[in-house]
Specification:
The structure is a single chain. Helix content is 54%, strand content 15%. By secondary structure, it is an alpha+beta fold. It folds into 3 domains: 98 residues, Beta-Lactamase; 118 residues; 156 residues, Heat Shock Protein 90 (2-Layer Sandwich), CATH 3.30.565.10. The protein has a 5-stranded antiparallel sheet with strand order 2-1-5-4-3. It is rod-shaped, with a radius of gyration of 47 Å.
């Protein structure tokens, strides 16, 4: 298959050749004939007036033809009505064509112009080499221009296609699994913008695949610990039944059940762009119901919004559980409405809070603060995912004297699909699908473990 730069280059060359050919044909066969022919006809009319009559002796006609040839600086020959030679000056010229009144005739010395005089004699003229027809000069000039353009166009065309080839090589390298593949960005044209878009897409793919690999590794690590304890408990129950072992086994199964539930919820949230079931929710009442299960105080004003009540309930539960597990009493919950049409939910406690450099990391899946082995590391990650799924966000928002403070903002009316949710959906890969299959199988296995526990 011919390469792209060859196609472009041959197209330019073909266009130039066609231009030369069309220009020559138009010059030769255009309306009114070629200008050189018109000049010869005009010169013929003048020559007819300057030549002696047909009955003039031949020597006198010879002198007249020679004088006219020297004056016009052309080869000139005079033929009789029967095409017999009467007089000539310069190089030999071909016989005229009796079928035409005037026109080009061709012979060994090159083309010449013949025309019939009023007295039926024929005059044939041909300019010397430095007075050749401008048709040939025009074609020669166009040919030289074509060669110059062809030589100048080659590096331009090759440079363009070379960047396209580099982009193609980058795409193939990325498709082969080398996610660090990037292409150089040269120039400011469309190809350069395409290269920039490819680099951004490649970086996004690399980040997503890295995040999914991390998710798989973390999920495997988190699931291995309770599963190992459950296996040990089962072996102990087989050899020496003990109520304490049964209680430990029940606790491990409950921990594994909670972990699987959170991983499944995180996976389901990644698979949608918006909250799956929107309805009118009294957020203050929902927070009060969840807060009744925890040692906390609630203050705020009634706020009604369009949201998924199950997801909001889980978000509030995770915030309160995080405050109870990692913070210190008292736990204070406050709900307000902003003038911009957004609800603000704040959960604060008397704990030490999150270090400033970890404010964003605590919302990543399976991330715990240093030295803390409690929990699964998915609670705050689900809080942020649920908030962003509704068009809001969750952040660490400490205040002077209140270092442990989390703030969630939610729009009162549903917004368009957040860009982050769309990006997450586009970023689904076989790694994530594999994690979901593993977790689903573990969830099914928990039913067997629960039956054994009872």
């Amino acid at each position: 298959m011919r390469r792209l730069y060859q196609k472009i280059y041959l197209t330019i060359i073909g266009s130039l050749v066609l231009l030369v050919a069309v220009a020559g044909v138009a010059w030769r066969f255009g309306p009114g004939g070629p200008p050189v022919g018109q000049g010869f006809e005009f010169a013929g009319e003048l020559a007819a007036a300057a030549l002696p009559p047909a009955d003039t002796p031949a020597p006198e006609q010879q002198r007249a033809v020679e004088a006219l040839s020297h004056r016009l600086r052309i080869d000139l020959t005079l033929y009789g009505p029967n095409l017999g030679l009467i007089a000539t000056s310069g190089r030999p010229l071909p016989l005229p064509d009796p079928q035409r009144e005037s026109g080009w005739v061709f012979g060994r010395g090159g083309p010449a112009w013949s025309f019939r005089l009023p007295d039926d004699r024929w005059l044939v003229a041909r300019p010397p080499p430095h007075h050749r027809s401008p048709v040939l000069a025009l074609v020669l000039v166009l040919a030289v221009i074509a060669v110059v353009v062809a030589v100048a166009a080659f590096p331009v065309v090759r440079g363009l296609t070379r960047r396209l080839e580099a982009l193609q090589a980058g795409v193939e390298t990325l498709g082969a699994g080398h996610l660090a593949a990037r292409v150089p960005v040269e120039g400011r044209d469309e190809v350069a913008r395409l290269a920039e878009s490819f680099n951004r897409a490649a970086a996004r793919i690399e980040d997503l695949v890295g995040a999914h690999r991390l998710l798989l590794a973390n999920a495997s690590h988190e699931l291995r610990t309770p599963l190992s304890r459950i296996r040990l408990g089962v072996e102990l129950m087989k050899t020496r039944p003990d109520p304490r072992h049964a209680a430990d086994l029940e606790r491990d199964i409950a921990e594994l059940d909670a972990l699987v539930e959170e991983i499944l919820l995180a996976s389901r949230l990644d698979a949608v762009d918006t909250a799956p079931a929107l309805e009118e929710v009294d957020l203050l009442a929902l927070v009060a119901e969840e807060g009744a299960r925890w040692d906390c105080t609630l203050d705020g004003e009634p706020v009604t919004l369009q949201a998924d009540p199950r997801l909001l309930r889980r978000m509030v539960r995770n915030l309160l559980e995080n405050a109870e597990r990692y913070g210190k009493p008292p736990v204070e919950v406050r709900l307000t409405r902003e003038q911009s049409g957004r609800a603000v939910l704040v959960v604060a406690d008397a704990g030490p809070g999150v270090p400033p450099e970890r404010h964003e990391q605590v919302f990543a899946p399976f991330v715990r603060l240093a030295g803390d082995s409690r929990g699964t590391g998915l609670g705050l990650s689900l809080v942020r995912r649920i908030a962003r799924l509704h068009g809001g966000d969750a952040v660490v928002a400490p205040l002077p004297g209140v270092p442990s403070r989390f703030c969630v903002t939610l729009p009162l009316e549903p917004e368009k699909t957040p860009a982050a949710a769309r990006a997450r959906r586009r970023g689904r890969t076989p790694v994530r699908r594999f994690v979901r299959r593993v977790v689903h199988r573990l969830a099914a296995a928990l039913g067997v473990a629960s039956r054994f526990r009872t």
